[in-house]
Amino acid sequence: MNFKIKNDELQIDMTGDKQEFPKYTTQVINLANQNAQGTRPNIVGQMSELIQEFPGKTFDEWKTWDLTQKPDAIDNATDRIFDMVNKMKTANDVIDRELVKKWVEDLVFNKTFIGLRYQESILKRIAIKKGVEYRLANSEEESQGIDGYIGDRPVSIKPESYKTKEMLNENISVDIIFYDKKKDGILINYEF
Description:
The chain is an alpha+beta fold. Helices cover 54% and strands 14% of the residues. The chain folds into two domains: 22-94, no CATH class; 112-189, no CATH class. Helix 2 crosses helix 6 (73-94).
């Protein structure tokens, strides 16, 4: 027999409590936390390690023990996140329909175009380093997993995350150029 224990049921079973939050507030707090990095290990501790070190059994014991490990962690995390929530409130005051439209246009036009066309930039930069010409693949070559040519070498361009996707049945018989998008550009990795 198969069955599912829902997350809120797990929480009640393990802690005896289920926190309720007003609609949308957890999304806002999560976003603020991502920006503020308030629950990073340097602030609240490395939870995966702490739970292994925890000598007790119950939720109340955990809470008490965790607070002895980093007594100021909850307040420090709260302060960082709440500061970011306030910054987001200020940003919210300047968001109007025109700003949302500008953001949508930037996403749909600029970022989509750049995201779909960065392959050419990757080919171009590697070709310059190698002192050869480059070209994008035609549709027939693309159907074979080729994204372009550097000199006469066919190449495929894939994100770094491609390396961890075991479920892909693709058999690419050409050199692969890997890239990793960062805030300030794209890191390129190739071995030819």
